[in-house]
Design a protein that fits this description.
With 269 residues, this protein is α+β, with helices and mostly antiparallel strands. It has helices at 5-10, 37-50, 55-67, 95-107, 111-117, 134-143, 175-222, 226-240, 244-254, and strands at residues 75-82, 86-90, 122-124, 147-155, 158-167. One of its GO terms (molecular function) is RNA binding.
């Protein structure tokens, strides 16, 4: 399409064509596409709201929109650090981000890791001229990367990972791309943190319901109080070295308590 982004955004033929589903190595955002950043972020916000609490879908919405919002971008992915050690690739728009994350985890170096650990924005203009991570740069160049732009994702000081943009051409990311990407990463981090919080809340509610069901079974079976039933679950969890919610789930599904005789301990008769 030959129209500029502003004109195309008002044409009858624009619609969803301006933001097609991302494909590997395609979907490069033209320079100047950041002029509609407000509109783009509004659409992203609506998309994230529709995914309400689904962390995987939220991450996919973030990376898909980033490819079509940040000038020069060919691919995008999110690097998450699990327990401060394991590197995990999430919601990549193609195979390249996965391969780059595996490479960085294997070598223990690279721009995505620096963006995560050192709390900064990292830009590589031409990876063939990169000297900061010599081993990473050589192998990444063979994978087809020429430019990279990595942003730390954070909420209230807690590091979640890095939003990483990839290009197949050198010097693909200018000051405009860096400015837009920083805004986008900030919004993305907040959305991601919100989705994770909702997911944790759902898990907590589900666990509470399972424990409540298990307590009801024990109260009916042994004619004990709710407090006694809960103590019985806790005692069984401690003796079998299994999580309380796991004990509750097994009891609710099978009707049987693992480990010691449930007629003993817990204060029940």
């Amino acid at each position: 399409m030959n129209d500029s982004p502003d004109r195309a955004g008002r044409s009858e033929q624009s619609g969803e064509e301006q933001r097609p589903a991302p494909t590997s190595g395609s979907g490069r955002a033209p320079h100047g596409s950041g002029s509609d950043l407000g509109e783009v972020m509004s659409q992203v916000a609506r998309s994230l709201q529709e995914e309400h609490g689904d962390v995987g879908a939220t991450l996919e919405a973030i990376t898909s929109a980033a490819v079509h919002s940040v000038p020069g971008t060919d691919e995008c992915g999110i690097t998450l650090v699990i327990k401060r050690r394991k590197v995990e690739s999430r919601a990549p728009t193609g195979d390249l981000p996965r391969r780059i994350d595996r490479l960085q985890e294997r070598l223990g170096e690279g721009p995505c890791l620096d963006a995560v650990y050192e709390e900064q924005t990292v830009r590589i203009d031409d990876i063939r001229e990169e000297r900061r991570w010599s081993r990473f740069a050589a192998e990444a160049a063979r994978l087809g990367v020429r430019s990279m732009l990595s942003f730390q994702l954070f909420v209230t000081g807690g590091t979640l990972g890095a939003l990483n943009l990839y290009a197949q051409e050198p010097r693909a990311f200018g000051e405009e791309a860096e400015s837009i990407g920083l805004v986008f990463a900030s919004h993305g981090a907040i959305a991601l943190a919100g989705a994770q919080a909702e997911e944790h809340l759902r898990v907590a509610v589900a666990s509470r319901d399972l424990i409540g069901q298990a307590k009801g079974i024990l109260m009916e079976r042994y004619k004990i109080t709710a407090d006694d039933a809960f103590r019985l679950l806790v005692t069984t969890s401690s003796r079998t070295n299994r999580k309380l919610v796991t004990i509750a789930e097994e009891l609710s599904v099978t009707g049987a308590m693992p480990g010691p005789d449930p007629g003993r301990g817990g204060g029940g008769r």
